[in-house]
Amino acid sequence: MLKHGNKTFIVYSASHCSTDDYALGLLSASQTADPLDPKSWTKTPTPVFVKNPTGNAFGPGHNGFFQSPDGKEDWLIYHANVATGQGCGDARSTRMQKFSWNADGTPNFGQPVPTGSKLPRPSGE
User: Fold this and answer.
1) What is the pTM assigned to this prediction?
2) Class of 2-108 per CATH?
């Protein structure tokens, strides 16, 4: 779950880790809405974080979130495979990357960063 501005988001793994199309979906609701009322939630029509074949990231899912030590950055942590057809087994690697926020207040996860990319350390480390 994420909270940003006046919205609450539930980010979930969509499809199944046995497929390369395992991805992240997004539900959103106003923070003043009743979270137990299904009508409070809006589901995005397409996944919000999907495979990046040219970056060796297949089936990105099983996610979590954290902030940098100084609280200035938001980070996504997830699992993905380096090659197609690897499914749910031991080939899945843990990955993380910084994400931003769109003008409408929704999270912008971008695409999975290619393997071997050098990432900056979370701010405040």
Assistant:
1) 0.94
2) mainly beta
